[in-house]
Amino acid sequence: MARYLRATNRAELAELAEQYRHLLAADPEVAENPSAYYDQVVEINLSELEPHLVGPHSPDRARPLSRMAQELQEDPGLVDEISSALIGSCTNSSYEDMSRSADVAEQAKAHGIGAAVPFMVTPGSEQVRATIERDGQMQSLSDINATVLANACGPCIGQWRRVGDPVGRPNTILTSYNRNFPARNDGEASTMNIIGSPEIVTALALAGRLSFNPMTDTLVGADGQEFMLEPPKPAPDVPQEDFDKGSSSYDDPPEDGSDIELTVAPDSERIQLLQPWQPWDGEDFVDMPVLLKAQGKTTTDSISPAGIWLRFRGHLDRFSDNMFMGAINAYTGDAGKGKNVVTGEEGVGFSRIARDYQAQGIKWVVIGDSNYGEGSSREHAALSPRLLGGAAVIVRSFARIHESNLKKQGLLAFTFPDPADYDRLQEDDRISLVGLKDMAPGKQVECRIQHADGTSETLMLNHSYAESQFDWFRLGSALNLFHQ
């Protein structure tokens, strides 16, 4: 890490860290005998670890590279042909990653072949872009027909122009990104994103199919002769000449910006100036309808889809029309639609129901499954429920970052003490959260459930609030605390 800091013109940080390196290293007795200090010790032998491919639709669906061809035969829903291959983005786009991919590209170039499918490269930063342009890796990738994109948040979150027309058609894209949930990359649930490391993606882009195993299979060169790719040579983690800073797009703010007025066209759908959230009124939340009971994997992409919606990301109200569009309704199995329990109308988009409740001054609650909010730390997934009148999210368990984001926006985040309590919530229930004035770290919160048949029951909910985080709720948001 010190070498990296020096290579990126931050030597003073390296020197500071090295003064305290004894605080950053494992205690000698722990390093010598870890099993005496840890409940579980995981041993990974990199020499035995085979490259893997994961997906589609979840990073959890993993298999070694040598199993992919067989799985393609066993699962008719998978598509062998790769429609696009993409490497880079904020993940797996370091100088070292790009150097290994460039090594594979140079081998292909030496045999006179290029990528068999559209192949796109997103440098991870302006610094990486400038450095691989200087040192030749970008040219190596371009020589096999790669298109170098802007070093920005691009195809990983759905911002790219796809070649061909994948609408409604099952197709495979191969990426080195870290998210591959349905509809994330291009707005199409039928697109299957398989994830691999950058050098594996580059190798498979040359073949154009998932079933190709570069460890055992051959390619055909321009001369008609078969050849095998060699594993990339060890690549440096930092360049020999340090990193090129590239061009900066940073402008110093004025010393006094208090007289600057921000003006936005009133009919803009791209930008909206936000007002601070209103503080809590000190009253309990009572008789709240359940806007959504989400079933199964509910990612931040399910809560707040990206793709084509990103054009509205600066206009929260317009963007929030997509709220819960990808969430599965536990009562019907439908995605993005539920029942307005006030009007009785069914099959209505969740954002529309939320807006109707809000117009009537009705707070609402969301019930979630396990690991609710996994995936990207997408703040819109907390902002939209706050904007449209949500009060609380009660789940079997949270993904950590999303739980924090909900808290920061002044929403209450609770968990069931018994995961089976999730099954007790019915579509027409009304929820009351009482005793909120007395909330304290480690103290359960009372949840009263009024069923439509006149019966009721009470649950005690858990939470992970620290004392300081209660101020975020009371003041309306964490940002309000700073403003105060």
Write out key terms for the chains shown.
16 helices, seven-stranded mixed sheet, 484 residues, globular, alpha/beta, 18 strands, five-stranded parallel sheet, 16% strand
- Radius of gyration computed on alpha carbons: 26 Å
Given helix and strand content, the structural type is: alpha/beta
Number of DSSP E strands: 18
Largest sheet: 7 strands, mixed
Protein name: Aconitate hydratase, mitochondrial
Organism: Geodia barretti
Keywords: Iron, Iron-sulfur, Metal-binding
GO molecular function: 4 iron, 4 sulfur cluster binding; aconitate hydratase activity; metal ion binding
Which SSEs are present, and which pair or pack?
Blueprint lengths: L1 H6 L3 H9 L1 H4 L3 H5 L19 E3 L7 E3 L3 H7 L7 E7 L6 H16 L8 E4 L3 H10 L1 H6 L3 E3 L22 E5 L15 E5 L2 H10 L11 E2 L5 E2 L57 E9 L6 H4 L12 H4 L17 E2 L9 E2 H10 L4 E5 L11 H8 L2 E6 L4 H9 L3 E4 L14 E5 L10 E6 L5 E6 L5 H9 L2 H6 L1
Parallel strand pairs: 3-4, 3-6, 4-5, 6-7, 10-13, 13-14, 14-15
Antiparallel strand pairs: 1-2, 8-9, 10-16, 11-12, 16-17, 17-18
Helix pairs in contact: 6-9
InterPro entries: Acnase/IPM_dHydase_lsu_aba_1/3, Acoase/IPM_deHydtase_lsu_aba, Aconitase/3IPM_dehydase_swvl, Aconitase/IPM_isomerase, Aconitase_4Fe-4S_dom, AconitaseA/IPMdHydase_ssu_swvl
Protein name: Aconitate hydratase, mitochondrial
Keywords: Iron, Iron-sulfur, Metal-binding
